[in-house]
């Protein structure tokens, strides 16, 4: 179990929801038959993308046990069933790319995913080898999104990616980072280079991206993917033993996970948030954040104030 799932489970356990087992996690509030997950268009193409996806750092870096693979297959199946599409990985994530390639191979899963991974090395030829290797592991002849991980040698890799996009080997180009200290550099790159996506950290407590980066992405027509929405699980530690406010349910917020995710998704510059989990119940709960009402600015301020006070 990864650190986020541990923190989330601990917070829920304190509230008593695990008293009769993990199956008492907050239920999915909207049936996919009644309503579709909210989608936002990728600015460079107009393609609609569901606003909640899946990260795979730690969670998909697993061995060969049947139980581990069965649970992750269930996670993928439930994500698709509830309307999610984007799955994000990297060579940095150990066996994650290969695990995705294996588990997503069945036809019920494969065509429904939006495959995103990264290049994380220096040098043109090393980058080409690594990206080809990633595509082979993920069993893809064409990749939806290739991103330069943490901006490592980004000027070199972007030249390769521009060519690959023209050739149809990839559909979209992106850059990523996971720390607020890199936001200024990300902004500079997205303004100077021709990219389709930028991925960075953003949460209800870590709001540095609201100062400039989110607006810069919107103005330049660059799609935004958000990582670290739960701050590696520390947000769940902060609300351990605490109840949701009474006004949460009336605003289609059914759990603390949805509270944190809906705050992020209320910003219209955000195209997709990618909370990571290996827990089937948690992925259902995460997907629920993509349904129903999203907070307006007044409610977002109220959400910050409530969290700060507990």
Question: What do you see in this structure?
Answer:
By secondary structure, the chain is of the alpha/beta class. The chain has a single domain (38-309), classed as NADP-dependent oxidoreductase domain (TIM Barrel). 38% of the residues lie in helices and 14% in strands. The chain has an eight-stranded parallel sheet with strand order 3-4-5-6-7-8-9-10. The protein has a two-stranded antiparallel sheet with strand order 1-2. Strand 4 (86-88), helix 3 (96-103) and strand 5 form a beta-alpha-beta unit. The longest helix is centred in the first third of the chain and has 16 residues, at 66-81. The two termini are 27 Å apart. The relative contact order is 0.17. The model is unreliable at 11-27 and 30-34 (pLDDT under 50). Keywords: Membrane, Transmembrane, Transmembrane helix. InterPro entries: AKR2_Oxidoreductase, NAD(P)_OxRdtase_dom_sf, NADP_OxRdtase_dom. This is Aldo/keto reductase.
Quick tags:
310 residues, alpha/beta, TIM Barrel, 8-stranded parallel beta sheet, two-stranded antiparallel ribbon, 11 helices, 10 strands
CATH architecture: Alpha-Beta Barrel
Radius of gyration over all CA atoms, rounded: 19 Å
- Counting helices, strands and paired strands, the structural category is alpha/beta
What is the overall silhouette?
globular
Largest sheet composition: 8 strands, parallel
List the uncertain runs.
11-27, 30-34
Question: CATH fold name, please?
Answer: TIM Barrel
Q: Estimate the strand proportion.
A: 5-15%
Strand segment count:
10
Helix % is 25-40%
